[in-house]
């Protein structure tokens, strides 16, 4: 098997899900056989928004021939990763380079995990929601937009409300009675807005 590890391993984080790794090629005489390529082992150490440690799954990408760089796609935003590089010949792989730590920046969150509308009265509705399963960063706020829908399914004026990130419910007041409303709800990090979930509900007709 090869004798030495690739040197001068550098990681350049391109965005919240993609990084580029570079390395110096090993001297050919240390390959001790036919140079097949380089393998990059990488794994997520932890999410920076959650302290949960789970089973670490190592991923491996193989870059054929005498390449000296490779792209690592599909990373999770706002996470800490480690990687190392090894050279491969027909017999197997050589020793690993020292582990390199890198962090991905924040991304936009996934949609809130649920939006539930309860307690309809003549002029109010209560909204409850769950935070995104994948915050992909530090949540800064939620945005709620809603509008009435009339009997011919035409949409009325859109109202927008910004809600602090630590809230999980809201009572909407001063609504029209016996009216159907459509709601659009999403979460934000400093990077931007995540995908929204929609829901509809009706205020009651009379007490």
Give the tags.
single chain; 207 residues; mainly beta; Immunoglobulin-like; five-stranded antiparallel β-sheet; four-stranded antiparallel β-sheet; 0% helix
Verbal overview:
The protein is mostly beta strands. It folds into two domains: 7-104, Immunoglobulins (Immunoglobulin-like), CATH 2.60.40.10; 112-202, Immunoglobulin-like (Sandwich). 0% of the residues lie in helices and 51% in strands. The chain is built from no helices and 15 strands. The radius of gyration is 26 Å and the shape is rod-shaped. The protein starts with 6 loop residues before the first strand and ends in a 5-residue tail after the last strand.
Which word captures the global form?
rod-shaped
Tell me the radius of gyration. 26 Å
CATH fold node name of the largest domain: Immunoglobulin-like
Order of helices and strands: EEEEEEEEEEEEEEE
Low-pLDDT windows of residues: none
The beta-strand count equals 15
CATH architectural arrangement of the largest domain: Sandwich
Give a short account of the largest sheet: 5 strands, antiparallel
Class computed from helices, strands and strand pairing: mainly beta
CATH superfamily of the largest domain, please? Immunoglobulins
Number of helices: 0
In short:
By secondary structure, the chain is mostly beta strands. The protein has strands at residues 7-15, 18-24, 35-47, 59-64, 69-72, 79-89, 100-103, 112-118, 125-132, 141-149, 159-164, 169-172, 180-189, 192-193, 197-202.
Helix and strand topology:
Blueprint: E1 7-15, E2 18-24, E3 35-47, E4 59-64, E5 69-72, E6 79-89, E7 100-103, E8 112-118, E9 125-132, E10 141-149, E11 159-164, E12 169-172, E13 180-189, E14 192-193, E15 197-202
Antiparallel strand pairs: 1-2, 2-5, 3-4, 3-6, 6-7, 8-9, 9-12, 10-11, 10-13, 13-14, 13-15
């Amino acid at each position: 098997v090869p004798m030495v590890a690739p040197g001068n391993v550098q990681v350049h984080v391109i965005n919240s899900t993609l990084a580029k790794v570079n390395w110096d090629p090993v001297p050919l005489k240390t390959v001790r056989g036919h140079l097949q390529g380089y393998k990059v082992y990488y794994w997520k150490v932890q999410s920076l928004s959650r302290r949960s440690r789970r089973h670490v799954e190592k991923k491996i990408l193989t870059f054929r021939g005498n390449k000296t760089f490779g792209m690592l796609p599909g990373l999770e935003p706002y996470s800490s990763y480690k990687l190392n590089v090894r050279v491969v010949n027909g017999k197997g792989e050589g020793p690993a380079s020292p582990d390199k730590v890198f962090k991905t920046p924040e991304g936009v969150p996934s949609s809130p995990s649920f939006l539930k509308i309860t307690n309809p009265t003549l002029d109010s509705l209560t909204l409850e929601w769950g935070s995104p399963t994948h915050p992909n960063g530090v949540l800064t706020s939620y945005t709620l937009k809603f509008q009435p829908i009339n009997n011919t399914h035409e949409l009325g004026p859109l109202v927008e409300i910004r809600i602090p990130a630590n809230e999980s419910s809201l009572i909407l007041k001063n609504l029209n009675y016996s009216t159907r409303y459509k709601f659009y709800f999403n979460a934000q990090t400093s990077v931007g807005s995540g995908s929204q979930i929609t829901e509809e509900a009706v205020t009651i007709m009379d007490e």
